[in-house]
Amino acid sequence: MPEMSGDADAAFLNRLADRLAALPGVRAVALGGSRAQGTHTAASDWDTAVYYRGSEGAFTPQDLRDLCELRATEWDGEVSEIGGWGGGVFNGGAWLTVEERRVDVHYRDLDVVEHELAEADAGRFHCEPLMFHLAGIPSYLVVAELAVNRVLRGQTPPGPDPYPPALRESAPREWWGRADMTLRYALANNAPRGGRTEVAGAVAVAAMQAAHAVLAARGEWVTNEKPLLERAGVRDVDDIVGRMRADPDSLADAVTQARELLRRKVAGAGEGGRGAVHLA
């Protein structure tokens, strides 16, 4: 990847946004990830989203493939079909190299985004599996993007401000319920068999779920899992995983310690003007 100056980065981003915005059916283009939030490094990729309205049927991935073929010396990569990444709110995209820079393009259907915006305002969401995400993703991820991403071309619905109170009330309990059940299952089924790998996996998943609960209780948006444990202050779960031995008693102790730690973090997450999260 070439080393870039601020002016060169800006010029590249303008070219990228112009070409994505010119695709048929694209209503808006946004910059996401670390580059939108100012936490990127020179090695960070460029996360973008193209917003279209699925009910219109005007946007097709083939147009993006055609663009890559037309500019083959500058654009190369893999373009999925709509729904090619498992469907749901995270419904496909492209992994590209554009002018020697790594670029991700995410498809965002405005019909889906507007539905999830209304659901989040009402305190409702669901979780979906997604590769590379241990806990999966909440459907309000596309709402979080509205709040933290930078619109480059066109217009997207405004992100909610403040964080929806109903979601801040419901999401911590839902995420903690998932974490608690994950740990209870490991305690009853994996630890007695001495399954260190299974127990370690369960603790890792539960830690991510609990971290989602903490950040929802704080009213902080989450768009991916990479910094999730640090942001939620549950990185000390690493010590519990590191001490695991492949015997039932050690593994049972590890699950119990993890549950106590994570429950304490979630229960206290609403403090500081809002009151503690009440857990079952």
From TrEMBL:
Transmembrane segments: none annotated. Residues 14-59 form the Polymerase nucleotidyl transferase domain. InterPro entries: NT_sf, Polymerase_NTP_transf_dom. Coiled coil: none annotated. It comes from the Bacteria. CDD domains: NT_KNTase_like (cd05403). Pfam families: NTP_transf_2. This is Nucleotidyltransferase domain-containing protein. It comes from Streptomyces beihaiensis. The lineage of its organism: Bacteria, Bacillati, Actinomycetota, Actinomycetes, Kitasatosporales.
